[in-house]
Design brief:
The complex is a heterodimer of chains A (about 260) and B (about 600). In chain A, about 30% of the residues lie in helices and about 25% in strands. Chain A is built from 7 helices and 12 strands. In chain A, strands 7-11-6-1-4-5-12 form a 7-stranded parallel β-sheet, sandwiched between helices. In chain A, a hairpin with a 5-residue loop joins strand 8 and strand 9. The longest helix of chain A is centred in the N-terminal third of the chain and has 17 residues. The relative contact order of chain A is 0.17. Among the domains of chain B are: about 130 residues, Acyl-CoA dehydrogenase/oxidase, N-terminal domain (Butyryl-Coa Dehydrogenase, subunit A, domain 1, Orthogonal Bundle); about 100 residues, Butyryl-CoA Dehydrogenase, subunit A, domain 2; about 160 residues, Butyryl-CoA Dehydrogenase, subunit A, domain 3. Chain B is about 55% helix and about 10% strand. Chain B contains 19 helices and 10 strands. Classes of the chains: A alpha/beta (about 260), B alpha+beta (about 600). At the A-B interface, helix 2 and helix 5 of A face helix 1 of B. Bound molecules: flavin-adenine dinucleotide (FAD) (2 copies).
């Protein structure tokens, strides 16, 4: 099976985010970059499918050169090759623009299944996977916690958690699946894996290579525009409920919830 | 760009390296960064969440964690690929050791033995059969290694061990009898690398399998720290060791033992970097939230001083460690790890840098002890209470000045190695001393104060080397081959050498960074380097005076001191302002951030 994984690089969730002077983006200096955690589940699932069915895992990333490092990490985990679309015209792309770029890469590839994270933990739009499936004209199953490819590799069954139960959705392949937390436990890159990754192919492509026009991507192609980014309000200090015994504490808590928080 | 240069062991004392000739943490390749991240992720993902559990000895957990590390190749960075190793360069190996260390003493003990003294003797001195039999299992963690050198009556003086090995009548076995003391991993090891005297005098290495008859262990030692690790005595009673399991040659056990310690030493240096970085982050976080007198204590000058001083020391420690790792990689270039005599060649190459490895061990263990002490202090009374991880880190730290050769022994070794290199003609030390003496006659200190960035520091390091050479020269002239008897003088000279290597390593790194990234992006590197050199230079001055005062008097002493003064002149800088700048750069991010991975 040929498996494609779309990978985004995001700031480490532990990074202290600073807003850039323009008020519309974040300051990128001093940021530690990581693979988007949901995409990491996608990479792991791709490797597991490959281990069962054979084939190849290709990682596709969009962004500046530093994204190479995240793609290399995925290669070190066991993926076979990488493609990075790096072009100044990409800056300012919205989800549609990114999906357009990905679909331009993918339309010429031979694939059975595409895996994405359900959303990027940076801007949390959660729609690139869906738009991409739409542009490619293939089925998609989103927010998935379990993937079962049929023995003959012609269909896939995916599980999605819904309020009070699980939806099991079946689709013909090729299809696109977006990964939710709980899908698997991603492996670490092993040291021999890292050394092998050095020799795996990683192609760089530009917008022109993909036959795209600069007006379709970046700010020009964007349907949405970020007006302003503001930091969340600072959290007020918590309150420790006092009391000698559990009973006393519970009584105090109910009183506080009733009198101060006014929620009961 | 110029290439890294292969300097000889100890050559730094007489040659001024260029920044581009030494390896610095700014030179990590992409693969090295990924390797570091992989080790760090393992530390953060697998070890850190089990911190409390690992505080007490849990042999099964340790074994399973070692096996997980083995699966990722983290146990075998120094082992050839053909024996199941990850076969990495020394810089990567040091990075792994640094990054896997998230301040968990018990794991560090087990891991340190497994990847260092508990397996490397086989890597370097094992026969192909021994390597094939044992290395893959040590690499995967299926077998746990231990290294049993120390005996109750033979610690620092280990080569005079009393354990005996007697060849059986049929010549197939050695019968080993004796007792080894303080053996780490003893409680759950599968393999014991040990030493015994053949025919009473021939000190010899042996590979012993724990499951063989006649081996028992005593109770766990109740240690000051490293409670999560196992340390016991091992007793050998008529243990039949096949002759194939002699490690190295009969009577050449000292070669095995000493070379192994060499590696252990620079790896120990690497481990201290990791632990220090972990602890300082914790201390800064605490200082930012601890309010006294209406302010977070991180805003007080004295706390900033502590934070800055830790940052500086970590910076220098790191500069030393990776400079040496880079040097070792150059020295090992061209040795095919899978070739028959690779181990021997590797051992020989590493032995040439024994001086540098000892510096790394002494400096690293003392920086760690400084760091744990100041972290306790920043936390005040809370740092003294067991719930806080600094409390155990404080205890764990102490052993590092004792094992892998006590810091006293390592100081003696530094000077011993230097004198031998000089005597063997490997290092033209006497010529260098002579040149400094001549220089002294004609030397006029320059009056100009206008100097470029770090140029003054460059001059100070060059002068410190001259001061060191004067001290070493005067001491050898006075005591000749009896110098070793004057331990206090020897230790002073060792400390001067350590300071010189430390200053220069930081200086070269900061200059390299500055040349590449410009002044603005190198500000804190430069500040740390300037403060360190300012203080270290004065220590060198004092120690040199102590040496002179110990060996000369009257007119001779006065002449020596006058000469010294020429090199020792300098105008102190405002270290208070610089330390504040350093502290203010790390407090917002709450971690040591001078090295980017
Ligand atoms: C927790 C722990 C784990 C250990 N793990 C291992 C292990 O796995 N394998 C192993 O083989 N050993 C191990 N050791 C032993 C350790 O290596 C020794 O403790 C160390 O080598 C020092 O030996 P000693 O304790 O006998 O001290 P001694 O040699 O008695 O030294 C006592 C003091 O005298 C000083 N001294 C000794 N000789 C001289 C001299 N010539 N000149 C000046 N000063 C001198 C020393 O510097 C020291 O300050 C471990 C020890 C501990 C505590
Ligand atoms: C074993 C033990 C026994 C004790 N026994 C007693 C007892 O019997 N009775 C009692 O009353 N107390 C007792 N104490 C408390 C002890 O006196 C306090 O821990 C001590 O006064 C320090 O206070 P702190 O721990 O809150 O540290 P903090 O005051 O929070 O200090 C933390 C750090 O900040 C520094 N710092 C604080 N303020 C400033 C400033 N303005 N400028 C610069 N640096 C500053 C401190 O020097 C320290 O390094 C005990 C503590 C321990 C651990």
């Amino acid at each position: 099976m040929n498996i494609l994984v779309c990978l985004k690089q995001v700031p480490d969730t532990e990074t202290q985010i600073k807003i850039a002077p323009d008020g519309m983006s974040i300051a990128t200096e001093n940021i530690k970059w990581i693979i988007n955690p949901y995409d990491e589940y996608a990479v792991e699932e791709a490797l597991r499918i490959k281990e069962k069915f054979g084939g190849e895992v290709t990682i596709i990333g969009v962004g500046p050169k530093r994204v190479t490092e995240s793609i290399r990490t995925a290669l070190a985990m066991g993926a076979d090759k990488g493609i990075l679309v790096d072009d100044p015209a990409i800056t300012g792309s919205d989800s549609l623009g990114i999906a357009r770029i990905l679909s331009a890469v993918i339309k010429d590839l031979d694939y059975d299944i595409i895996l994405c994270g359900k959303q990027g933990v940076d801007d949390d739009y959660g729609i690139v996977g869906s738009i991409l499936a739409e542009l490619l004209g293939i089925p998609q199953i989103s927010v998935v916690i379990k993937v079962e490819v049929s023995e003959d590799a012609s269909t896939v069954k995916a599980h999605r958690e819904v309020e009070g139960g699980t939806l099991v959705i079946e689709s013909a392949l090729p299809a696109l699946i977006t990964a939710q937390k709980g899908l698997n436990e991603p492996r670490y890159a092993s040291l021999p894996g890292i050394m092998k990754a050095k020799k795996k192919p990683l192609d760089a492509k530009t917008i022109a290579d993909l036959g795209l026009d600069a007006s379709q991507v970046g700010e020009n192609g964007a349907k949405i525009k970020i007006k302003q980014i503001t930091p969340p309000e600072e959290r007020k200090a918590g309150k420790i409920v006092e009391g000698e015994t559990p009973q006393e504490m519970a009584a105090n808590l109910t009183r506080l919830l009733h009198e101060e928080a006014k929620v009961i | 760009m110029a290439e890294l240069k292969l300097f000889k062991g100890g050559e730094f004392l007489i040659t001024d390296a260029l920044p581009e000739e030494v390896f610095t943490p700014e030179d990590f390749t992409n693969e090295q960064r990924l390797i570091a991240k992989s080790a760090e992720e393992f530390g953060l993902g697998e070890l850190a969440p089990r911190r409390d559990e690992l505080e007490e000895l849990n042999e099964e957990l340790l074994k399973s964690l070692l096996r997980s590390a083995g699966e990722l190749g983290l146990l075998s960075t120094d082992m050839p690929e053909i024996y199941g190793g990850s076969e990495l360069d020394k810089v990567s190996s040091v990075l792994v050791t640094e990054k896997i260390n998230q301040g968990i003493g018990g794991f560090l003990l087990a891991y340190g033995v497994q990847t260092g003294i508990g397996s490397l003797p086989i890597v370097f001195f094992g026969t192909p059969e021994q390597k094939k039999k044992y290395l893959p299992k040590l690499a995967s963690g299926e077998m746990i290694g231990a290294y049993a050198l120390t005996e109750s009556a033979h610690g620092s003086d280990a080569l005079t061990a009393e354990t005996t090995a007697v060849l059986s009548e049929d010549g197939k076995y050695y019968i080993v009898n004796g007792q080894k003391q303080f053996i780490s991993n003893a409680g759950f090891c599968d393999l014991i690398l040990t030493y015994a005297q053949v025919d009473g005098t021939q000190f010899t290495g042996f590979i012993i399998e724990r499951k063989w008859d006649g081996i028992s262990v005593d109770e766990e030692e109740k240690k000051m720290g490293m409670h999560g690790g196992s340390t016991r005595s091992i007793i050998f009673q008529d243990v039949k060791v096949p002759v194939e399991n002699v490690l190295g040659e009969v009577g050449r056990g000292h070669i095995v033992a000493l070379n192994t310690l060499n590696i252990g030493r620079y790896k120990l240096g690497a481990a201290t970097v990791g632990v220090c970085k972990f602890l300082i982050a914790d201390a800064i976080k605490y200082a930012k939230t601890r309010i006294q007198f209406g302010r977070p204590i991180s805003q007080f000058g004295l706390i900033k001083h502590k934070i800055a001083e830790m940052v500086i020391k970590i910076y220098v420690n790191e500069s030393i460690g990776y400079r040496i790792a880079g040097l070792l990689d150059l020295a090992l270039q061209g040795i095919d790890p899978s070739s028959e005599n690779a181990g021997k060649k590797t051992g020989e190459a590493l032995r040439k840098y024994a001086l540098e490895c000892s510096i790394n061990k002494v400096f690293g263990s003392e920086v760690l002890d400084y760091t744990v002490d100041e972290c306790v202090q920043i936390m005040g009374g809370y740092g003294y209470i067991q719930d806080n991880l600094i409390e155990s880190a404080y205890r764990d730290s102490r052993i590092n000045r004792i094992w892998e050769g006590t810091n006293e022994i390592n100081r003696l070794l530094i000077v011993d190695r230097l004198m031998k290199a000089s005597m063997k003609g490997e290092l033209p030390l006497l010529d260098a001393v002579k040149a400094v003496m001549e220089d002294l006659m004609s030397y006029r200190p320059s009056m100009s104060e206008e100097e470029g960035l770090l140029e003054k520091e460059q001059k100070m390091v060059a002068h410190a080397k001259k001061m060191g050479l004067l001290a070493a020269g005067a001491a050898t002239k006075k005591y000749m081959d009896k110098l070793a008897n004057e331990q206090e003088v020897v230790a002073l000279i060792a400390d001067i050498i350590i300071e010189i290597f430390a200053m220069e390593s930081a200086l070269l790194r900061a200059r390299k960074k500055f040349q590449k990234d410009g002044e603005e992006k190198s500000k804190i590197h430069i500040a740390a380097t300037r403060v360190y050199i300012n203080d270290s230079f004065q220590r060198v001055d004092i120690m040199t005076k102590q040496v002179f005062a110990a060996i000369s008097e009257g007119e001779e002493l006065r002449t020596q001191l006058m000469g010294l003064k020429k090199f020792a002149r300098f105008t102190p800088i405002n270290t208070i302002a610089l330390r504040r700048e350093i502290a203010d750069s790390v407090i917002p991010v709450a971690r040591y951030n001078l090295t980017k991975i």
